[in-house]
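Following up on my earlier thread - several people asked me to post the actual chain instead of describing it. Fair enough. Here it is, all 397 residues.
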Amino acid sequence: MQPHIFLYRMRYPYLVILILILGSCRQPESGLYQFDPRTIEEKEITLSGIADDITYIPLDNSFPLSGIYYPRYFVDGNIYLSERQSGVMRFDREGKLAGKVGSKGRGPGEYAFCFNYSVDEISGTVVIMDAGVIRVYSETGRFIRNIDFREYGESADVIEFFYSNIFISCHPQFGGDKYDWIVLDTLGNLVESKERSLPEFNCNDLVGGGIYKYNERIYSWNPWSDTIFSISPDFILKPSFVIGPGEHRLPRENFLRLEDIKLYYKPYLILESDDYIFTRYYYDNDLIIAVIDKETKTSYSTVLTSGPAVIGDNLIGGIANDLDGGMRFQPENYFVENDREYLAGLIDAYEIKARVKTDEFETFQAKYPEKKKAFEELAGSINEADNQVLMVVRLKQ
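Reply from S.P.:
Thanks for posting it. Predicted structure:
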């Protein structure tokens, strides 16, 4: 989680400098890692510290992509993207359009919303959450059935395939919602459920939760809870790590001034690899990417925006790219391919064109000069108005 419905890409009017933060994080008595956004000190980090390769996948220009939501899936050589106007689409590993999943609309078998969907890595089945109904499609994009899940509550906000079942995370905030999460099969039968564990929160900040998958488990977070839980294939819950207590946590009561909302910690995205946890969050007027070293329990972060952020198409900044000297990296997806771990993020074609024209790029001593040359060739092969490009980095083993 961009985005899951609550994960936004934002725009800020000037270029920010990459900073890396080394934070001393206290460990709670339980022994779990405790993340605290207040314990921050600046220290720079580069892509070469976590990755050893970088590639780019330009997306098919057969028709314009007006906006791409999170999540994105790399499944069995295919790339699945959800586009604002056209819905969920499938591309091959080279970025060529391979097919669409159903179509946007309000007729039979169509869907009005497409920013919350999932792809089954086993069967290729695609499910799309659409206003209380899950639309189920085959691997080829053919409509199969609807699943109405409104009887389980109104706060469901994220779905994810989990061993060919549909995991639906509810992240309740207000009263009346019964479940933290439910699991359905693709016929709509209830497989498992977790009853609500949190009290009612009446805060007027309507931020949602999220989920991510790692190492055959699913992980769920709720901004109103201090614990990120992992869920095993047999639906056993286990705490993974916690958010430290303090005045940075969202209050239960309403804000007297709406501008105060910007001061509190709100996670928008969490990814995990064998060595790191990557999280994007908003805190104290900044949108931040943090990198947590799982072995040393130290945390690093880079500010993406500073000051009041507005919703838009781009984020400024990211992890410094010393592999080829190209764009700064904003991790948005994690996937495993051929037993290697990867992170991916989107960049705009015009940004690539602009980057190679800078004096900084011309004089930059890239760790892999051949990769810098390939980035220059990429810039020469695309136009400013072309569709976005996927930036894919391979994590070190």
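DSSP finds three helices and 27 strands in the chain. That should answer part of your original question.
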